[in-house]
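CORE FACILITY INTAKE
Project code: CF-77B
Contact: R.S. (postdoc)
Sample description: multi-component assembly, two entities in total
Requested service: structural model of the whole complex
Turnaround: standard
Below are the sequence entries exactly as provided by the requester. Do not edit them.
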Amino acid sequence: MTTAKRDTYTPETLLNVAVRVFNERGYDGTSMEHLSRAAGISKSSIYHHVAGKEELLRRAVSRATDGLFRILDEPGALRGRAVERVEYVTRRTVEVLMAELPYVTLLLRVRGNTKTERWALERRREFDQRVAALLKAAVADGDLRADVDIRLATRLLFGMVNSLVEWYRPQPEAGAGGVEGVPAVDDLPGTVVRLAFEGMRAAGR
Amino acid sequence: MTTAKRDTYTPETLLNVAVRVFNERGYDGTSMEHLSRAAGISKSSIYHHVAGKEELLRRAVSRATDGLFRILDEPGALRGRAVERVEYVTRRTVEVLMAELPYVTLLLRVRGNTKTERWALERRREFDQRVAALLKAAVADGDLRADVDIRLATRLLFGMVNSLVEWYRPQPEAGAGGVEGVPAVDDLPGTVVRLAFEGMRAAGR
């Protein structure tokens, strides 16, 4: 296909295409030429919508971080015991990852080579620190175990949660990498919370 | 520095350089020219040691997967209740990740574009399946909770364990990405096992 499409993009739909290409080729490895080819419109048509690829990155990352930070203002994150708030935030974080998968995937793959990438890393760090503060409060309440370093627990919790971007796919696709087949994900957010907070051991074992 | 070093490499030390470059640039993005520059020796000197970059990848991935599969033949992985065996394998997997960090990092970043990469993915899948089988046996024994899909539990367990390659660094370096500072890692393998199997909740909460 060499015929250019008529430009029927909105900033929103163009962003979808850009995020897909960024995730496939890496942000560094993506040129305006790649974006133009993927969108099927000319580079000048893209420049009609955005100043360049860094603006697309900024918009995409904003969508991911806005979704994550909004969680912290929800009633479930503000009221109740710290342990309930942190479980709520964990559950909702998984839900946002599932709903905004390509955007959060991009956020988690950002390296920090440009100003926008460094800003993205900073926002991600801020979110992690807000969750770490909740974990700390829950330890102080005696609800979470005190024998694990908070920063380490935060890393491992996000390690588990963020691994979703590697294997979770909205529509089951056979053999989509990793473990054979696609796991049953009836209640993925609830399962992550159960495993992270209660562990894999059967009760009383 | 444009002066080429005298070639004092062994296949082993050349592999260290190659793995570092693969992890920095991605395997796809690494050319023999990049390897030659990083090693400070000519391309023909590299060809004296190996047939090409795919051989270097195969050797590097073998080192990672050999380390992982050896765990499964250790007495702790073969004797005792399934739950103890799977906890042993989890602990040892973390230890191998820590000891062979650049090699396992490369293994976990492989995409599957070449025959060697697909073989690496297959080996990784095999290892995951061996651990999944142990988890299944521990559920059958009643030692692990039965309300979580085994494949999902396997993914989340490895999500937590494999996240180490993103943030664990042998020598603490200030501000090495992710959460501020470096978490205390006195007993990282033990901590991962405690969190994964017992969860973050304090006992009885």
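Facility notes:
- Chain B has a mean pLDDT of 90.
- The two ends of chain B are 61 Å apart (CA to CA).
Invoice: internal transfer
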